[in-house]
Design goal:
- A hairpin with a 3-residue loop joins β4 and β5.
- It is globular and about 45 Å long.
- The strands form 2 sheets. It has a 5-stranded antiparallel β-sheet, with helices on one face. The protein has a 4-stranded antiparallel β-sheet with strand order 3-1-8-9, covered by helices on one side.
- The chain is α+β, with helices and mostly antiparallel strands.
- It has a single domain, classed as Cyclic phosphodiesterase (Cyclic Phosphodiesterase, Chain: A, Alpha-Beta Complex), CATH 3.90.1140.10.
- It has 3 helices and 9 strands.
- The structure holds adenosine-2'-monophosphate.
- It is an enzyme of class 3 (hydrolase).
Length: about 180
């Protein structure tokens, strides 16, 4: 019963201004990829994907994340557009800060009851397009920087227009 489940993930949610900067810097590359473009309002960095969570676990999920409030803030700087196989076209960073990786790792540990084991290491990225007709070489772009001062719990609702994301809660990071 979908009403009893919520599709949830933790994310770094960019400012409107940063999403506009990303779109300006990457729109032509994303179009040329031939993939399905992610609309600017949906651009984000997934920290931890939970998937379908039973509605009664919603409070427990939030309580599990709360101790990570006050973790160190950091700056993300994105400088490449990479195809990950033919599945994703991503905005990536050649210098992911340790504080971002620590935050994702600690979230995974605190929420281990809600996630499947996943041995892939976390690589911060922003998906720009999906389902590419062919893989593509990495393109360097002008560096796009965003200071990150909080992390968010986000709900994904899928309808005829695609995915609609709502930020449900935010926790501050310490500068
Ligand atoms: P992606 O952009 O790297 O594909 C909402 O669906 C967000 O959760 C997306 O940004 C997506 O990351 C991520 N996501 C969706 N399904 C996932 C899965 N099975 N494992 C990990 N992340 C997933």
């Amino acid at each position: 019963d979908p009403a009893r489940h919520r599709r949830l993930f933790f994310a770094l949610w960019p400012t409107d201004q940063f999403r506009a900067e990303i779109e300006t810097a990457t729109h032509a590359i994303a179009l040329a990829s031939g993939g399905r473009l992610i609309p600017a309002r949906n651009l984000h960095v997934t920290l931890l994907f939970l998937g379908e969570v039973p509605a009664e676990n919603f409070d427990v999920v939030q309580q599990a994340a709360a101790p990570l409030a006050g973790s160190p803030a950091f700056e993300l700087s994105f400088d490449g557009v990479e195809a990950w196989g033919r599945r994703l076209l991503c905005l990536t960073s050649s210098t992911p800060p340790a504080a971002a990786i620590d935050l994702a790792t600690r979230l995974r540990a605190h929420l281990s009851n809600f996630v499947r084991e996943d041995e892939r290491e976390f690589r911060p990225h922003i998906t720009l397009a999906r389902d590419l007709p062919r893989s593509r070489p990495t393109q360097k772009i002008e560096v796009l920087r965003q200071q990150v001062n909080d992390f968010a719990l986000v709900e994904s609702v899928r309808d005829a227009r695609g995915s609609q994301y709502s930020v449900l809660n935010r926790w501050p990071l310490e500068r």
